[in-house]
Specification:
Blueprint lengths: L1 E9 L2 E10 L5 E5 L6 H8 L7 E6 L2 E2 L5 H7 E4 L11 H6 L14 H13 L15 H14 L4 E5 L7 H18 L2 E5 L3 H7 L2 E6 L2 E6 L1 H4 L2 H8 L3 E5 L6 E5 L7
Parallel strand pairs: 3-8, 3-9, 6-7, 7-8
Antiparallel strand pairs: 1-2, 1-4, 4-5, 9-10, 11-12
Helix pairs in contact: 4-5
Amino acid sequence: MEARGISAGYGSSLIVRELDLTITEGAITALVGPNACGKSTLLKSLARLLPLAGGSVLLDGVDLHTKSTRDIARDLGILPQSPIAPESITVGDLVWRGRHPHRRFGQRRTAADETVIAEALAATGTAELIDRPVEELSGGQRQRVWIALALAQDTATLLLDEPTTYLDVAHQIEVMDLLADLNQRTGKTIVLVSHDLNQAALYASTVVAMREGRIIRQGPPEEVLTEETVAEVFGLKCVVVPHPRTARPQIFPLGRHTGA
């Protein structure tokens, strides 16, 4: 996937301007940066959820805007920020919607569909919730169910906007481990927006640091998540040390009461 000179925003306000980005196939890429820096706008632009004011997005060398919505749904699995489920829908029926790009109009569930749905529910630890209305679930349970829907879509690429939102730290790690497992086992390309720099450092092979609609730096975590770049992107003093098990960079913020 490649963005070439894309500009996008809302109404007359452009959030990202003439931005270039190449997403490595079969890798995990994390988009990081302060609030309102353009991370979600960039992700929506890559997913064709937001019209471009300029430039183009290519997938396997083909401009996304020349492809049908159905074809895009077969290529890209998308989890937006704070998705809304239809009223009274059950978990099983919501995850079933992930199979819609792969079926003909009016076609009933096949055995293959049931297998994919069951695997998606099992992978996200939500199989026991299959008959529960989504509106009755906790925030963390809902988030895992939405991830199950994205998995059921069975695409080569996943675009996830803050996939660990609403989750406690244990479930955050479970979800990130799940994404890493999918990446390693199936070669899925995963692009995710994250506010957690340490998780991005541990799980992503490429980190894209953004500020004010621009890419400040991109590359391996150890090259991007430095004290200098964190200061430039977030305006935050910090100490960066290697993780004791993985040697990946870990960021410790320095505030007025923590040694800054």
